[in-house]
Amino acid sequence: MTEKARRNPKQARAQATVDTVLAATFQLLEAEGESRLTTNRIAERAGVSIGTLYQYFRDRDDILAALGERQAEAMRLKVTEIVLAAPEQNGVRTIIQAIMSGIEGSPETRILLMDALFRAHGESILSQHHIAFLASIRERNDLDFVLGRESAFVLTHAVICLLRAAASEPELELDPQALEDELVLLIESYMAALAARAEAQKG
After folding, report:
1. Which sequence spans correspond to the domains of the chain?
2. Cα 183 to Cα 198: distance, rounded to the nearest angstrom
3. What's the CA gap between 198 and 139, in Å, rounded?
4. Which of 191, 189, 175 is closest to 133 using CA atoms?
């Protein structure tokens, strides 16, 4: 089926169908896991025909990518809201909390959705997180140095890649609060080191 053949969900009814399919997919993932997730089961859970489902999605992976993208977008909007509300009052911890809570569901669901995003968008999904995180820390009044391209890359990708690794290794049974504390320590320590290096270079 070509891209033109697939319907673009512009009308309210069409958007409601897409929303229902994505909600049904998430429910099935949480209840039964990936192994039993098929387009037929998704259509049945959503209360739509399989033909209707294929009007909006190519296959199961397309649905998973759309669900992951929706959750990632919600996370980016949340980070932006935090920054615009009162950036001077929101440190690294607030941003990390927003990122950690951005992808919902069990560890298995979260890694599945993240993998679907990576398959669909490649490295661009990391770039989106990169931009969102940079937008927040650039508003920090206590940063008296300019982030270079490489140090900015380390800051953003360290958080995202470590969270992705944590989601993909549930057998480690990492405590979310402890992990949050460690990520805050990592980023704030690195930022302090960057500031100290910049100060030393002035002398």
Report:
1. 1-58, 67-202
2. 23
3. 18
4. 191
Whether the per-residue pLDDT at 11 is higher than 60: the answer is: yes
CA distances from 116 to 64, 122, 135, 142, 183 (A): 6, 9, 25, 37, 24
Reported CATH class of domain 1-58:
mainly alpha
Look up residue 21 and give its amino acid.
V
**Residue 161 Cα to chain centre, angstroms:** 11
DSSP string, 101-121: TTS-S-HHHHHHHHHHHHHHH
Mean pLDDT for all residues in the chain: 79
Burial class (CB in 10 A: 0-12, 13-18, 19+), 98: buried
pLDDT at 178 over 80: yes
This prediction has a pTM of 0.69
Task: Tell me the C-alpha distance between 4 and 190, whole Å.
Answer: 48
Rounded Cα distance, 48 and 66, in Å: 18
Mean pLDDT of 80-89: 60
Which range is least confidently modeled, 13-22, 45-54, 113-122, 185-194? 113-122
